[in-house]
Amino acid sequence: MGVETFILVSVIKIVIALAVLLTAVAYSVWLERKVVGHMQNRWGPTRVGPFGLLQPLADGLKFIFKEDLTPPHVYRPLYIAAPMLALIFALTSIAVVPVGNWVSVAGVHTPLQITDVNIGLLIILGVTSLGVYGVALAGWSSNNKYSLLGGLRASAQMVSYEIALGLSLVGVLIMAGSFSLRDIVDAQGGHFWGFIPRWNIFQGQIVAFFVYLMAAYAETNRVPFDLPEAETELVAGYHTEYSSMKFAMFFMAEYANMITVACLASLLFLGGWHGPLFGPPMLQAVLPLFWFGLRIFAFIFIYIWVRGTLPRFRYDQLMAFGWKFLLPLAMANLVVTALVVALRS
Amino acid sequence: MRLWLIPILPLLGAAINGLFGRRFSRQLVALVALGFCGAAFAWALWAAAKLSGGSYSETIAPWIRAGAFQVNFSFYLDHLSLVMLLVVTGVGFLIHVYSVGYMWEEGGFYRFFCYLNLFMFFMLTLVLGGNYLLMFIGWEGVGLASYLLIGFWFTRDSAASAGKKAFIVNRVGDFGFLIALFLMIRHFGSLNFDQVFGMASRMNPETAGAGLLTTIGLLLMVGACGKSAQIPLYVWLPDAMEGPTPVSALIHAATMVTAGVYMVARSHAIFERAPMALTVVAVIGTLTALFAATIGVCQTDIKKVLAYSTISQLGYMFLACGVAAFSAGIFHLMTHAFFKGLLFLAAGSVIHSIGGEQDMRKMGGLRKKIPVTFWTMTAATFAIAGFPPFAGFFSKDEILWRAYQVSWAYWLIGVFTAFLTAFYMFRLWFLTFFGEYRGEEPRAHGEHGHGGIHESPRVMLVPLVILAGLSIAGGWVGIPGSLGGGNQFERFVGPVFHAAIPAGGGEHGRETARQEREAEGSEPETNAGTELMFTGISVSAALLGLLLSWWLYCKRTELPGRIARAVDGFYEAVLHKYYVDELYAILFVKPLIDGSSKILWQGIDRGVIDATLDNSADGAREVSDTIRHMQSGNLRSYAGWVAAGAAGVIVYMIWIGVR
Amino acid sequence: MLHLILFLAFGAVCVAGAVNLLVQRHPINSALSLVVVMGSLAVEYLLLGAEFVAAVQIIVYAGAIMVLFVFVIMLLNAGEEEYSNKSRVAHVVGIPGVLIGCVLIGWVLVERSHTEAVAVGALPGAPKDIGWLLFHDYLLPFEVTSILVLIAIMGAVVLAGRPEPVQQSKKES
Amino acid sequence: MVPLSYYLVLSGILFACGVTGFLIKRNLITIFMSIELMLNGVNLSFVAFAAHWHALSGQVFVFFVMVVAAAESAVGLAIIIAVFRTRETLNVDQVNLLKL
């Protein structure tokens, strides 16, 4: 494969991935409104298009045409850069996420993944850890006490929960023996006794999955850990002063992060794209994508479900939960996993 | 045989009492002290029973190894050290018992017994040590214990300075001893008794001029003078009476002060080949005996009298050694330990009974009030005065007889001293126990309620009685042939002084040894009559002393004062101990103090050492005063210095690399 | 060639970030330029094949340490730097020192220039190999650093924690 | 292919920038960042030498440096917070009470 082909294929993959991701972001917003609406015994968006399916489009238009207000005392360079940073870091991490096996299209053999890096997991962790800058800088540069508090909360919260998150992944890494996401998924192929899939969650990493789930909520600033944007306390938290597309960027970054987290959960714990394959070859090629999408959907649904169900934590409870419960739990899981693996080998 | 147990046992007692005694009850302290001391005595008896074949030695562990020179922790037991061992442990044990009663009311009870046991440890090390170095350790250790015990009432200024005086004067003697040891190392390459004596006995006697052995002998004698309070180093002993009376009895009468005699006797192999040294020993002994006795006549303090008496008796012992009658000296040492220990204890009992008064002029008529003390004291007084059949008679007679065989001058002075001894001892006896009581009624005697003159408790009286028995009968082991005895003691100890001289080398020139042997071999037959005559003379001298003191202090009590006035100047001189202390103060103490304060302190310490330090400190302060401004507290300045320093290091490294 | 271009490009970014750190007067700008420096350094590490170190550089340095810096700047609401000048030494002694050091080291590097090139991925620092080294050859230092980190955590808590209010005992009784 | 000395020069520049920052900056936090910059410069030379000598130990050293830097920044920032609380300034020129 020549350099030109490589670049061409990469660009195509990037475009496709971005398009899919942004669409998914838009429709997870719609899904959230719809599901929460039903949970609260109302309809959610219904007017724009059938079942309100065109609502995301309308929202987008609205954001674009809104006045882009810049308050007078903000620190302009960072005020402008912050939402971009947030969105960029949120979208970047998708680059190493594999969505399926290798495919051959028009004689080009390529993985269903923008690039296969053998430290893929580390890159995702690194990039998501950079995502905190967007939030923190937004809060600080707005020169507004609510924003500042939101930014402070966000950065403290994300740094704290990153530790539990990272530790919960170590168990999986020990079992797979690789940082490459593809290797990790491959290690989960097959079944126990013919019917129980060899997902990590069924290989004893259920505790790690639980820790990951909790930490992921906090990392993405979602309910019940959405303290950085707690509207009852901080108006709208770090993006109080933002409007128009700048606000939309934060919005998109949040949902993109959710999807990334969902992807990671699927890949690490739920067997990735593995699932029953049947039908004609064409269908067999598409089915892994479907199974993968299904998992992400389920994960997002749980996100929304939790949002519709749980109240918000207090900040000290949040910190105590992270440091005094999740972290020890993740460590215990790590120790047990390491012991089991060491004894088994 | 585990000889090392004998010294170690009192050490254990001392350690226990010293470390934990503060929290113990008095009973427990006494139990510990007596227990360990008694155990040592018991072990000594057992060792005595087991000792066969004259001598026994054991080596515990090597101590110092330097090339061919080696000193071990070794212990040596023969008949000589056995006598010393039994005297030290036996009399020591009795005095321990006595002390329990005597010190019961005193503060620092545990401290006293700790020191006492410590003294026992060092004394036993001295006696049992198998080489000169171990002996020296014991020698120094008893000095330390003596210092501690003299200064036992350290809050009393006189006691503290008496302790210091004893220690410092002893240092002078120890210095001589130490040099003697160095000489031995230099010339014999060893300090072990058998090696040193073996080599010494192979050398020729140094009849004329001073040779190595004479030097060593004289230096050893210096040491002995210090420890055993002989002229010119006797001055500390009278002052040492500041210590508690049992201490005086144990250390300054019975045991420690006799260490010098023991050492000279132990080193007989050296002295026998150094006639000049022997002569010096004899002369010093004789002079000390006479000198101290004359001072003793005028003393009024009961313990001082006894102290001078001790010095005088020690002079007898050195006289014996000086005329090569070592076994006679040791015999006198033993009997002296009995009766002098008894005298001190009885004196303590007297002092105790009248509430701490020591001046004889304020005593009198105590005969009826403290009968047990009186009768034991009587036994001891007759013993020291040399009345047959008391112990002192035999030993003193032996010494005088042997002294006469060397020179009539020794004998004459000895007999005169015996007369003086009898005089001042009976003076003490009469002043204390006869006539009217001259002191005021003792004031309630401390805290324990029973006022008035009273007999001491039983725990004090029992040792008195035992020692009285020994003072009477202790001499019977050495009844000379002329009096129909077999002189068992001479037979028992004597071999030590002959056996140690090996058969090899230099028999032709051993004048002194031959002379001694001749005397021993032929004496019972040829000189029995002469000896009896001399015995009679010395006994009559003692009787004369008794009568004179009875005349002066019982019959015509106003006479002593008149005599004193008649020979005013002489009396004053004797009363002030011939001004020896003052002489020493002018000759040695004052120059030393002046020299050290003017030259060493003001000149060297202040002017050189302190000045150097002060000036360098001032300089440092001035320098740092100027460069402290570097330390501005500003972080960036520090960083600047660090950067400059780093640049310097880089320059240096590159320079090295380029070169 | 590509390698050299990448090196030069990110090296330039790196130096620019470092210089910007010095030039900027507001600490938050300095902090962000330092993040840039770290990011481009991570790329340099990748060029050298040290992928694990690169990832850790991003996660630990950029993602944790620098976030901490930003957090503290926000918490203390640090403003623009005041140009007080109380240290002549830093300028009179320090700067020349730095210059001398730089010049000398540069001279040495030029003089004894190492012409041997370092290939891309010359030494693949695979996480597995580094882990092996860490847990075998360097186990003791590793454990020691873990203790160091523990102590640092405690120290930070003690230093930054506010003193407890005194009325604590009242509540208990 | 990049010569080793290029990496070393880059590392040296970063280190020198760090030192200079320490000397000329007045803000405590920025000074602290300068230290981090110096550490990063050193790390680069470690990695470059590791590649040059084919010894992974260099990368392990970088790892240790990072851990120490993390610990140091935690404590250092805590100290800065404490200093700010008592002195209410971050200007290092005004934090100069520790002197003779």
Furnish the topology, listing elements before pairings:
The complex is a heterotetramer of chains A (345), B (659), C (173) and D (100).
Chain A: H1 3-39, H2 55-65, H3 76-92, E1 100-105, E2 108-112, H4 120-141, H5 145-176, H6 181-186, E3 191-192, E4 196-197, H7 206-219, H8 231-234, H9 244-269, H10 281-309, H11 315-344
Antiparallel strand pairs in A: 1-2, 3-4
Helix pairs in contact in A: 1-9, 1-10, 2-9, 3-4, 3-9, 4-5, 5-7, 5-11, 7-9, 7-11, 9-10
Chain B: H1 5-20, H2 26-50, E1 55-66, E2 69-78, H3 79-102, H4 109-128, H5 132-150, H6 157-188, H7 193-201, H8 212-228, H9 236-239, H10 245-254, H11 259-266, H12 268-272, H13 275-298, H14 302-322, H15 326-353, H16 371-385, H17 391-406, H18 408-433, H19 458-473, H20 488-499, H21 511-526, H22 528-555, H23 559-566, H24 568-575, H25 580-627, H26 635-658
Antiparallel strand pairs in B: 1-2
Helix pairs in contact in B: 1-2, 1-4, 2-3, 2-4, 3-4, 3-10, 3-15, 3-19, 4-5, 5-6, 5-10, 6-8, 8-11, 8-13, 10-15, 13-14, 13-18, 14-15, 14-17, 14-18, 15-16, 15-17, 15-19, 15-20, 16-18, 16-19, 17-18, 17-22, 18-22, 23-24
Chain D: E1 2-3, H1 4-24, H2 28-53, H3 57-87
**Architecture (CATH level 2) name of chain D:** Orthogonal Bundle
Cα-atom radius of gyration of chain A:
21 Å
* Uncertain stretches of chain A: none
N-to-C terminal Cα separation of chain A, in Å? 39 Å
Oligomeric description of these chains: heterotetramer
What is the third-level CATH name, the topology of chain D?
A: Helix Hairpins
Overall SS class of chain A: mainly alpha
Supply the number of structural domains of chain A.
1
The major beta sheet of chain D can be summarized as: none
Distance between the ends of chain D: 54 Å
Give the largest interface: C-D, 87 and 70 residues
Helix content of chain A: 55-70%
* Rg of Cα set of chain D: 17 Å
Specify the overall morphology of chain A.
globular
Fraction in helix of chain D: over 70%
Structural class of chain D: mainly alpha
Largest sheet of chain A: 2 strands, antiparallel
Q: Per the principal axes of the C-alpha atoms, what is the gross shape of chain D?
A: elongated
The SSE string of chain D, one letter per element, is EHHH
Write up what this structure looks like.
The complex is a heterotetramer of chains A (345), B (659), C (173) and D (100). Chain A has one domain. Helices cover 66% and strands 4% of the residues of chain A. Chain A contains eleven helices and four strands. Chain A starts with a helix and ends with a helix. By secondary structure, chain B is mainly α. In chain B, 73% of the residues lie in helices and 3% in strands. Chain B has helices at 5-20, 26-50, 79-102, 109-128, 132-150, 157-188, 193-201, 212-228, 236-239, 245-254, 259-266, 268-272, 275-298, 302-322, 326-353, 371-385, 391-406, 408-433, 458-473, 488-499, 511-526, 528-555, 559-566, 568-575, 580-627, 635-658; strands at 55-66, 69-78. In chain B, strand 1 (55-66) and strand 2 form a beta hairpin. Chain C is an all-alpha fold. Chain C is globular, with a radius of gyration of 22 Å. Classes of the chains: A mainly alpha (345), B mainly alpha (659), C mainly alpha (173), D mainly alpha (100). Strand 1 of chain C pairs antiparallel with strand 1 of chain D, so a sheet runs across the interface.
